[in-house]
Amino acid sequence: MDPVLRETTTVGRAELSVLAAGEGAPVVLLHGIPTGAEVWRPVLQRLAAAGHRGLAPDLPGYGATRLPAAADHSLAGAAQLVAEWLDESGQAPAWVVGHDSGGAVGQILAVRHPGSVRRLTLTNSIADGAWPAPRARFAKAAAHLGLYRAAARLRMVPNPYMRWQIRRAFADPACASVAEQVLWDTKCSDPGGRAAFERHLRSLSPRDTSIVVAGLPHVEAPCQLVWGMADPFQPWEAPGRRLAELLPDPAVTMLEDCGHFTPLECPERLVAAMLDWAATG
After folding, report:
1. Measured at the alpha carbon of residue 51, what is the angle toward residues 50 and 56, in degrees to the nearest 5?
2. Is 134 exposed, middle or buried (0-12, 13-18, 19+ CB in 10 A)?
3. What is the pLDDT of residues 95-115, one digit of tens each?
4. How far apart are CA 226 and CA 270, in angstroms?
5. pLDDT of residue 174
6. What value does the mean pLDDT of the chain take?
7. For the chain: N or C, fewer Cβ within 10 A?
8. Who has greater pLDDT, 55 or 179?
9. pLDDT higher than threshold 80 for residue 13
10. What's the pTM?
11. Euclidean distance between CA atoms 60 and 198, whole angstroms
12. Cα 48 from chain centroid (whole Å)
């Protein structure tokens, strides 16, 4: 398979870190909470083999991407940063693929920065204002109190409860061991990463998604939903069906026996669904 390389580019005052593989038309892969770009590595390799240029940025608050402390670490800020990056690098419009909160970033891009999006694929994405989940609201409250960095520094993050939550996100529990390798990165181990993730947690707001709901029926790019049907966090019957109603005639692929983390648990089926859809025009 093509190698997956990490690149760093300057966008305004931000240092954007991106995993890249392959050559061809750009496919931009946007991760969710709490993963980082590494969650897309199996997908990057398969897209490269199919003749695409896969690009997975660490969004603000994650991985090796760094923004000034006062910069916008919200999902709307992430969409703005990605739009500027795509425009400045000459890669717009791109096929945008979003998972979890990365799906929210994709929605914001499609509504507010339509010139950035050639196609839009959402997989087990959040939608509208029905988030964050109670566990994420607790993390957000802790971040507002400045407790996240202290907990991570004292190695209280990740903890057994967090690991249990991640295990139950997979239809196949054996896949949880792979998640351990990509979830707990600099947000736990590095002082700068801990501070960036805390800023991101503080900035999380369902307003970022609810405010673009009215624009989703008018998205001009072709849209696709690929959903792991064994997802306890973002089940099809809630955000999946809501997005199917809002987006203009989206293609829908349901992945049975696949949980929340589709890029990790079923990358072959996710990429196959994407490529099959693209082949139909």
Report:
1. 90
2. exposed
3. 999 999 999 999 999 999 999
4. 7
5. 86
6. 94
7. C
8. 55
9. yes
10. 0.96
11. 11
12. 19
Amino acid at 270: L
Task: Say if residues 269 and 227 touch (Cβ distance below 8 Å).
Answer: no
Angle of helix 75-88 versus helix 101-112 axis, rounded to 10:
60
Q: Are 198 and 146 in contact (CB under 8 A)?
A: yes
With helix as H, strand as E and coil as C, how does the chain read? CCCCEEEEEEECCEEEEEEEECCCEEEEEECCCCCCHHHHHHHHHHHHHCCEEEEEECCCCCCCCECCCCCCCCHHHHHHHHHHHHHHCCCCCEEEEEEEHHHHHHHHHHHHCHHHEEEEEEEEECCCCCCCCHHHHHHHHHHHCCHHHHHHHCCCCCCHHHHHHHHHCCCCHHHHHHHHHHHCCHHHHCHHHHHHHHHHHHHCCCHHHHCCHHHHHHCCCCEEEEEECCCCCCCHHHHHHHHHHHCCCCEEEEECCCCCCHHHHCHHHHHHHHHHHHHCC
Q: Which amino acid is at 42?
A: P
Of 182, 228, 184, 210, which Cα lies nearest the Cα of 104? 210
Q: How many residues comprise the chain? A: 281
